[in-house]
């Protein structure tokens, strides 16, 4: 088998979508003659944890750890809630407190490319010897945090290993990057580091078509699109919710506030007698204050259920119990390449997806190809309203279902085969 060292910050018991991509690749690599070795931080500060992911870690896998200095742990002394929020990517668009402004400035300008930069030097020192002693020829770095890619770049320069740089999200073009209060010097430094990584990697993998297009303008390094996917997990066979449930699973950032949706739901509640009684808006995950304020403003508070963070298993159950699944993305050119990891679990839930996002959104292509729902731009208010009404009428007749197609291409095992082929070709 080919040995591959995977360098990742997020690993169980970390929660959220960031951990799942390489956890699932590791789970299936041996089917395709790849022997994975995983390098993770010894003492990380994760914004959320989910112990249910631990079951997917192969029992006899080699996992090595390196100590990391975590500025987020130090910042918690001053403002634990604000630190966790910024670490999770939720940046308020309202008037920010002095503490939040200071934390954002520090995060953006003193920790380049990110607050995990202090893991780079000790990791390169330790892994240089480990790689030589264990005859490893291929390494993978996955970001964010994009400082992990600096480990890969320095290892390639130092000992000549083949290096795949995997981008779960873009670097300088991601939405929150512009909110970090960067100076011109800091912005230039981010761009320089991004360019060095892209041009020194042996190959690059990305999760969306748009990210590939963006990176192709910055480098001639080969780029492969390997999306996230779904796993064939056993889920308790619960019945559909009796209410007309519109469920969103995952963080709802301030920029994703779908005011057009709240407006439509308010109008339908006011004009259809049964709609207000049947409607239930379920939000599972971190929800920003701006979202809550909007829901209150549109008079939908009584129809909302806030679940908080759910374990992965509970999230899968909620998806299958819901009548409609909401997929919401920021209305921006910067976000058209963002394909939320939950989309792939949505598409195998057998529930219709109502997606609202930017024009030419990559997620829309997948929803269309799999026939699992409908995608709209924020300006298409009438079409969104008509679709919700159509869903509601089918719900009232117990006929609200989807017949999907072309879904198997997104199974984790099939995607792992693609990734294994890429690694063997380096």
From TrEMBL:
Record-linked SUPFAM superfamilies: UDP-Glycosyltransferase/glycogen phosphorylase
Question: Gene3D superfamilies recorded for this chain?
Answer: Glycogen Phosphorylase B
What GO molecular functions are on record for this protein?
Answer: transferase activity
Q: Which controlled-vocabulary keywords does the entry list?
A: Transferase
Descriptive protein name: Glycosyl transferase family 1
Which organism's genome codes for this protein?
Neptunitalea lumnitzerae
């Amino acid at each position: 088998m080919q040995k591959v060292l995977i360098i990742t910050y997020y690993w169980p018991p970390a929660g959220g979508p960031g951990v799942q991509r390489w956890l699932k690749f590791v789970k299936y690599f041996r089917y395709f003659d790849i022997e994975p070795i995983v390098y993770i931080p010894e003492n990380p500060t994760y914004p959320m944890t989910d112990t249910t992911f631990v079951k997917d870690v192969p029992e006899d896998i080699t996992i090595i750890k390196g100590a990391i200095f975590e500025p987020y742990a130090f910042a918690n002394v001053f403002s634990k809630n604000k630190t966790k929020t910024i670490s999770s990517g939720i940046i308020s668009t309202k008037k920010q407190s002095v503490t939040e402004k200071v934390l954002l400035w520090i995060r953006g300008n003193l920790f380049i490319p990110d607050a995990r930069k202090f893991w780079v030097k000790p990791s390169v020192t330790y892994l240089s010897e480990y790689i030589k002693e264990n005859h490893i020829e291929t390494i993978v770095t996955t970001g964010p945090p994009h400082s992990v890619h600096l480990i890969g770049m320095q290892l390639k320069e130092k000992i000549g290993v083949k290096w795949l740089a995997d981008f779960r999200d873009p670097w300088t073009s991601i939405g929150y990057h512009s909110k970090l209060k960067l100076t011109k010097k800091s912005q230039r430094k981010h761009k320089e580091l991004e360019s060095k990584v892209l041009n020194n990697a042996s190959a690059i993998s990305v999760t969306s078509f748009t990210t590939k297009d963006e990176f192709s303008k910055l480098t001639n390094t080969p780029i492969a699109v390997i999306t996230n996917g779904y796993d064939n997990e056993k889920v308790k066979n619960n019945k559909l919710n009796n209410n007309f449930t519109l469920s969103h699973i995952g963080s709802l950032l301030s920029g994703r506030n779908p005011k057009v949706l709240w407006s439509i739901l308010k109008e339908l509640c006011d004009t259809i007698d049964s709609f207000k009684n049947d409607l239930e808006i379920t939000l599972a995950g971190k929800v920003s204050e701006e979202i809550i304020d909007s829901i209150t403003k549109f008079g939908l508070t009584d129809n909302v259920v806030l679940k908080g963070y759910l374990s992965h298993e509970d999230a899968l159950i909620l998806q299958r119990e819901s009548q409609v699944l909401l997929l919401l993305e920021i209305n921006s050119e910067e976000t058209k390449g963002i394909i939320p990891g939950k989309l792939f679990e949505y598409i195998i839930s057998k529930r219709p997806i109502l997606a609202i996002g930017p024009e030419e959104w990559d997620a829309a292509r997948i929803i269309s190809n799999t026939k699992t729902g409908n995608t709209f731009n924020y300006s298409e208010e009438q079409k969104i309203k008509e679709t919700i009404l159509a869903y509601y009428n089918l719900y009232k007749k117990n006929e609200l279902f989807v017949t999907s197609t072309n879904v198997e291409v997104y199974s984790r095992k099939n995607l792992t085969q693609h990734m294994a082929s890429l690694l063997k070709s380096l």
